């Protein structure tokens, strides 16, 4: 179990971590997500006793790491793969670590085999590729067979086979009842690896929930319809409380209702459907929606630019252009197909602050304070409308 309680860390004028609290439970994999500079590594470094907190606490199995008599057998961490002496051979580094922590040397060969490094065990780690260095860092984290694992960007530099291996490793460690905290920018990977996620932005916890809860609350789930009489269907659905946007003569986007209800309405109205598609966003899409305004380092213009993996992307789906906020009541029907500038998103979404309220003790949603110099949503403009997708 890891407990982070009201943790704050300031470096001069920079508050890297600001009153962060969350719990990482055993038996599941918890993903730690956030844009560059959000405060993930700082939190992990404080947890591992490599930095002191300005205030608050970070504990492993009930106490700070410094108070454990045998830290390496309590918690294993990969924080910086280059922290091992590059002049030493991989096996030598691990043997030295084992020796100073009272771990039998036979365990060194076990973790070398486990991480696929047996064949290069007698090579200097300074000559290792980034991926091999990551594997060696993971080997040192596993050396003490600890109950708690903390991995900061473990898949960084790994090839696809290595990424899959880390996923299986984390899932296996969790299935043995261990506590696993892992940070990554690879959202598709985190969607497959993590059971819960903690999202942090500019030092604040933005969400603490299961992956499904996160997508349900933050993602822009909707129903896409192509119908021969989209106008009549859209008006009827809006009258029953759905949020309907007419894309063109035949296409609708509908939020706030189920596909089956849309199909039933169409049947009752005698409207023929060509398409009825439930659109559920990915973890990456939901994450980009939540963190679009939390990105500290951004390339390109507006909300477009390289994503966290360096891929060129357009604006996050459903995000309005910055500074453009419009309230949008529920049950609204926008009957006229809208002229959409090319490249501009075409979508309406509602970011309901209630979604970010405490849902249950296990699930936390927070709206961080708007940073200085950035325009906050106007009072009464909580419902944001963007021309999207
Ligand atoms: N030693 C330091 N001195 C000054 N500022 C620091 C120091 N370490 C971190 N920071 C600042 O604290 C903030 C949080 O950094 P941190 O490395 O924790 O973010 P992160 O979420 O791990 O980012 P990334 O995904 O890029 O690794 C950043 O603004 C960073 O510049």
What features would you describe in this structure?
The protein is an alpha/beta fold. The protein has a domain at 2-215: P-loop containing nucleotide triphosphate hydrolases (Rossmann fold, 3-Layer(aba) Sandwich). The protein has eleven helices and 19 strands. It has helices at 40-47, 71-74, 90-100, 106-114, 130-142, 160-175, 187-193, 211-218, 230-239, 259-269, 283-291; strands at 2-11, 14-24, 29-33, 55-60, 75-78, 148-152, 179-183, 196-201, 204-210, 222-227, 243-246, 251-255, 273-279, 305-306, 312-313, 333-334, 347-348, 364-365, 385-386. A seven-stranded mixed β-sheet has the order 5-6-7-3-8-9-18, with helices on both faces. Strand 8 and strand 9 form a beta hairpin. 41% of the residues are buried. Residues 298-332, 337-363 and 367-389 have low confidence and may be disordered. Bound molecules: adenosine-5'-triphosphate. Residues 11, 14, 16, 34, 36-42 line the site of adenosine-5'-triphosphate. Keywords: ATP-binding, Nucleotide-binding, Transport. This is ATP-binding cassette domain-containing protein.
Topology of this structure?
Elements: E1 2-11, E2 14-24, E3 29-33, H1 40-47, E4 55-60, H2 71-74, E5 75-78, H3 90-100, H4 106-114, H5 130-142, E6 148-152, H6 160-175, E7 179-183, H7 187-193, E8 196-201, E9 204-210, H8 211-218, E10 222-227, H9 230-239, E11 243-246, E12 251-255, H10 259-269, E13 273-279, H11 283-291, E14 305-306, E15 312-313, E16 333-334, E17 347-348, E18 364-365, E19 385-386
Parallel strand pairs: 3-7, 3-8, 5-6, 6-7, 11-16
Antiparallel strand pairs: 1-2, 1-4, 8-9, 9-18, 10-12, 10-13, 11-12, 14-15, 17-19
The structure holds adenosine-5'-triphosphate.
The site of adenosine-5'-triphosphate (ATP) has 11 residues, from strand 2 and helix 1.
